[in-house]
Amino acid sequence: MIDLKQLWVGDVLQVISTGIVGKYESHKGSSVLLNCKGNKIKVSATDLKLYKAPKQNVELVFDDDSNSNTLSKINDSIDLHIEKLAPHMQNQAQARILDFQIEKAKSFVQEAINQRRFQILIIHGKGSGLLKAEINEMLKDFDKVRYTFEKNKGGATEVWLDI
Fold first, then answer.
1. In whole angstroms, what is the distance from residue 85 CA to residue 69 CA?
2. Domains in the chain, start-ordered, CATH in brackets?
3. Side-chain half-sphere of 128: how many Cα atoms within 13 Å?
4. Is 92 helix (H, G, I), strand (E, B) or coil?
5. pLDDT digits (tens, 9 = 90+) for 30-88
6. FRET label pair with 85: which of 57, 67, 106, 114, CA 20 to 30 Å apart?
7. Cα-flanking dihedrals φ and ψ of residue 127, to 5°?
8. Are 72 and 80 contacting, i.e. CB atoms less than 8 angstroms apart?
9. Rg of the Cα trace of the chain?
């Protein structure tokens, strides 16, 4: 049985007997209210488990063009839209998604600094502006960030780094 005291609103749960996946909203006694794509259903806590998205198999393909004199292009941008960054997290709580996006952006900036890249682009989208504000705050933690510029009508931030 799932420990109802450990659940947060928005946690993704799966009904064991049917396979239905939904977001936790509340509980009363041992009855849990799930939101399944806008439909609310009551389920016994004994028929629930935390949902784990299936692992996606990613095939790595390496270009073995030994005649090529060009270096492979290093990715100089990151798209933080959750459906592109981590589609398996789309049903997670908004706070978890935001934390994940910030951590990925931090790693991306640190990797760019380590690789001595001069310029990168962080695509955060326009939305409510929360992710953009968090990204701008996060960038202040890096002493190698020289300038930031708003791009794509506010949907992205171009970052120039001191190399």
1. 31
2. 4-50 (2.30.30), 77-161 (3.30.1370.110)
3. 5
4. coil
5. 999 999 878 899 999 999 998 876 655 545 555 444 444 433 345 699 999 999 999 88
6. 114
7. 40, -140
8. no
9. 21
Rounded CA-CA distance 158/115 in Å is 17
Largest CA distance in the chain: 68
Structure tokens at 37: 């794509």
Rounded distance, CA 153 to CA 9, Å? Answer: 34
Give bridge partners of residue 50 from the DSSP assignment. Answer: 13
Task: Report pTM.
Answer: 0.55
Q: What is the pLDDT of residues 89-135, one digit of tens each?
A: 888 999 999 999 999 999 999 999 999 999 999 999 998 899 999 99
Query: Which two tokens mark 76?
Result: 């100089």
Residue whose structure tokens are 């998604």 = 97
Contact 49, 16 (CB under 8 A): yes
Three-class SS state of 64: coil
Distance CA 76, CA 125 (A): 17
Q: What share of the chain is helix, strand, coil (3-state, %, to 5)?
A: 30, 30, 40
